[in-house]
Specification:
four-stranded mixed beta sheet; two-stranded antiparallel ribbon; about 110 residues; single chain; 3 helices; globular; binds zinc ion; alpha+beta; Hypothetical Cytosolic Protein, Chain: A
Length: about 110
């Protein structure tokens, strides 16, 4: 009980270190056509390697763009993080929920305007 903050982990999105209790653990579970399905593990009880991420869509975006989940979990192939994104969206945003959800798939918008 000398370390109430518990273990420290690095967010795979923004790469900042934070107490594990402030981060969402993400694990790879089922495989679908060679694609590993990533799911949030809020209770941190699932077996296997975990990636840690702030419960923040911005960190998710950073991690997804860098393929950080696959690297952190040492996945050989592609990863489907859709369930993680939905989980974060459901948590809402601490700033008041004004963030608009991506109405395209969120993958094709990067190059269009800049
Ligand atoms: Zn982060």
């Amino acid at each position: 009980m000398l370390t109430p903050a518990g273990p420290v982990r690095t967010c795979v999105g923004c790469r900042r270190r934070a107490p594990a209790s402030e981060l969402v653990r993400i694990v790879g579970t089922a495989h679908r056509d060679g694609v590993t399905v990533l799911v949030p593990d809020p209770t941190r009880t699932r077996p296997g390697r975990g990636a840690h991420l702030h419960p923040d869509p911005a960190c998710y975006t950073l991690a997804d763009r860098r393929h950080a989940f696959g690297r952190a979990l040492r996945l050989a192939g592609a990863a489907d993080a859709g369930e993680v994104r939905e989980y974060l969206a459901r948590l809402g945003t601490p700033d008041g929920g004004a963030v608009a959800p991506p109405d395209t798939q969120g993958r094709t918008t990067d190059m269009s305007t800049r």
